Model the fold of this input.
Amino acid sequence: MRPSASGLTLDAVTSADKALGGVARTTAMEGSRHLGELVSAPVHLKCENLQRTGSFKIRGAYVRIAGLSPALRAKGVVAASAGNHAQGVALAARLLGVRSTVFMPLGAPLPKLAATREYGADVRLRGQTVEDALHAAGEFAETTGAVFIHPFDHPDIVAGQGTVGLEILAQCPEVRTILVAVGGGGLLAGIALAVSELRPDVRVVGVQAEGSAAFPASLAAGRPLALDAPSTMADGIRVGRPGDVPFRIVRDRVDRVVTVAEETLSRALLLCLERAKLLVEPAGASTVAALLESPDAFEGPVVAVLSGGNVDPLLLQRVLRHGMAAAGRYLSLRLRLPDRPGALASLLGELSALDVNVLDVGHVRTDPRLGLSEVEVDLQLETEGADHRTRVRAALRDAGWVVTE
Done:
């Protein structure tokens, strides 16, 4: 058993696993036939979105707080987060009888604020960003003596997250590749530490959003580098700099880190909902996005870790629209019709026969290119996908409708 560059060993992960007995759930491993056909190998989804508090974060938070001395526990704990880590710390502290204070940015989603409070934390809103909240949490720790619980940059956090790796190997011993979402690196480092010790033949691959990918450049430089302005809809992995502790493990034990586009994150979230019946946040869907972008790049059987399911309903609404557009489910058309009663009704009947859902209809009568007895109609349609869109266009033209756009 070799220690990692951070000093962590497999014993730390197995000890964390014992500490989490009766606390963290052994989450389900669900097969995905759709993704399996795409990859031409079995694909399994590790459902940490079904974990307590809706993400894997309870694992590391509980191990970290449980390891504090009675004197330190008496001082309370403090954390900063926009969502998942906040809820994990709040619940872990409540289970251990420790007072918790969580700083969150003013723009944090209301459902996550409410959930963190319900788990027992004293929630305080500070600043516009997570960095502002982190600064406030640091000041609070200095003035009160409360123990700061970092979201990823601590050995106990990494060990706790590594218990996901133990479960994967037990549930899917035939696995050849494990895909893991990456923000600061705690989950990836923990899984890689456990898996590389027990199954060095299994490849562990990290997945980051293109607009918030600090690891590729950091790995190339050999040290953690900070991004100027990380940007992605996947707030769970929108981290500007890898943690020092996880970086050393990732550098030594992870096969590679890949990136995925925002459009693919939307498609992946939609796929999880429609095909797997699983509500997954954009960060959690990043591993599925990696399979969608590069289905031939990973040796199977593949396990994709769905790291969380805490998605704000308003964001979910926007992401679903974006994902449907990215999947070719929307079609915008402009048609020229005779300006007489019944023409639009006839067109809508044609669309109904083509199994198209009409979302919006707009009339254009002022275009100088139109004749006196003509009108143009803008249609926003919902289709079954790219092939259906092509069939709809062709069928309308074959039926004699003048499609101008």
